[in-house]
Design goal:
Layout: H1 14-29, H2 39-50, H3 64-75, H4 78-83, H5 90-110, H6 123-155, H7 168-179, H8 182-187, H9 194-200, E1 205-219, H10 234-242, E2 246-254, E3 257-265, H11 273-291, E4 296-301, E5 309-311, H12 317-329, H13 338-352, E6 358-365, H14 373-382, E7 385-392, H15 397-402, E8 405-409, H16 414-422
Parallel strand pairs: 3-4, 3-6, 6-7, 7-8
Antiparallel strand pairs: 1-2, 4-5
């Protein structure tokens, strides 16, 4: 690997070499090709973003385009804004370095006057170089913000001790593509809701004799008897047993739940603010499912249900990124068939083999479709599922008849999303 121009960086260290080579590898998979794309430059850009303050060596005289780029980056005002997302975060620093290089390559290709930069160092080319660097850093700032939000969203709602790291090899390209997607940025606006969603989402428990301690109780279950009770006189102990007044440990165990299944209407009437609100609610419910350690299923529907999107109890990065991509790209259009959507959801739960566990189906719609009430009641019973209906700015009498909870949402804001989470 070619030497770099930052002080206190050992360019022969295996970890340092790995950083630069990994960035070049990711860039190559994205189709980036240019003379400036070297492991040495990638390493210097990475540590410029990663370290709180990177110090350059004195001008070696023959640093060429590599030295000039690193110097201009370090002197740029945009660097400070970019580093608020990258300092001491190796994953984000790696992806943002690739992003910066991507913009540098694109702008170099567009700037014909820089094609012979290696042979010339005049003031005009220096000015053009500074312009290219500033523009590259500016473009990368927004992407860095999205990357950081994706990283935070993926780790939100997880139980303590559960891993939440993306895989640099498998996930980097997908995250970089998502970071340039305007629709993904809109979906990620729900991130400010995460603390409230986590706080209002609770795992459900049931009493279990060999579960974890949860206080004290009175009764006659000798298996949960508090040992101190054995110090009582035998007659008094027998009387407390007969009257179910023995002091017992109250024990509980996490209740195993079936899927949290979301059906989201994407018909023609669900335009603008409605579909954006529904997408944000989908993300909030996914976080809730993670918090409750249960599967999350999602189908969008119009006149027929669309492809099933699954997120397992131990959410993998691949599942999470697929969910984010699919939610972001959905466009409204088509008719509305709520009956078919609910029947499909029930069949999915039945076929999953989790029918013995309690499941929840949440349907979000603004449709006034006529439902096959008797059929849906039978299907919900077979799937062991409760139906929560969220009616956007409207009413559906048939849905109200078969729902365990029926919410009418008139104001599409964050508070209404939290109402759905609590339901």
């Amino acid at each position: 690997m070619s030497k770099g121009f930052l002080k206190s960086i050992d360019y022969e260290d295996p970890v340092v070499r790995y950083r630069g080579e990994k960035i070049v590898s990711i860039s190559a998979r994205l189709g980036l090709k240019h003379d400036i794309l070297t492991a040495g430059l990638a390493t210097d850009l990475f540590y410029t973003l990663y370290l709180p303050h990177a110090v350059m060596v004195e001008d070696p005289g023959e640093g060429g385009i590599h030295y000039s780029l690193v110097k201009v980056v370090n002197e740029s005002e945009e660097l400070t804004k970019l580093k608020q997302y990258t300092i001491m975060d190796s994953f984000t620093s790696t992806l943002v370095t690739v992003s910066v290089i991507q913009y540098l390559v694109e702008l170099f290709e567009e700037s014909k006057e820089l094609l012979n930069l290696k042979e010339s160092n005049d003031e005009g080319r220096g000015s053009a170089l500074r312009s290219i660097v500033r523009e590259s850093l500016k473009n990368s700032i927004q992407e860095a913000e999205v990357i950081k939000k994706i990283e935070r969203l993926y780790s939100s709602g997880l139980q303590p001790g559960v891993g939440s790291e993306f895989d640099l090899d498998e996930d980097s390209e997908r995250i970089l593509k998502l970071s340039r997607n305007v629709d993904v940025s809109k979906v990620l606006e729900v991130l400010s809701l995460v603390p409230d969603v986590v706080r209002r989402s609770r795992r459900k428990y049931e009493r279990f004799n060999r579960g974890e301690f949860d206080g004290y109780d009175l009764g006659d279950d000798l298996e949960r008897l508090v040992p101190a009770q054995l110090a009582l006189p035998p007659r008094y102990l027998s009387l407390n047993f007969i009257e179910s007044k023995l002091l017992l440990y109250d024990k509980k165990i996490s209740k195993s739940l079936g899927p949290l299944y979301l059906l989201t209407d994407k018909s023609g009437s669900m335009e603008g603010e409605k579909i954006d609100w529904a997408k944000a609610t989908a993300i909030a419910l996914m976080i809730k499912s993670k918090r409750e350690i249960r599967e999350f299923y999602l189908r969008f529907f119009d006149s027929s249900p669309h492809d099933l999107i699954k997120v397992s109890r131990r959410t993998s990065s691949s599942e999470f990124l697929d969910l984010l991509k699919n939610i972001a790209r959905v466009r409204n259009g088509g008719g509305t068939d709520i009956t078919k959507a609910i029947i499909t959801a029930c069949d999915d739960i039945i076929n999953s083999g989790l029918v013995k566990r309690d499941s929840d189906i949440v349907v979000i719609t603004d449709g006034e479709d006529t439902l096959a009430v008797t059929t849906l009641r039978r299907k919900l019973k077979q799937a062991n599922a409760k139906l929560v209906s969220v009616m956007i700015q409207g009413d559906n009498k048939d849905l109200k008849l078969i729902s365990s909870r029926y919410l009418v949402i008139n104001t599409l804001d964050k508070n209404s999303i939290l109402k759905v989470v609590e339901a």
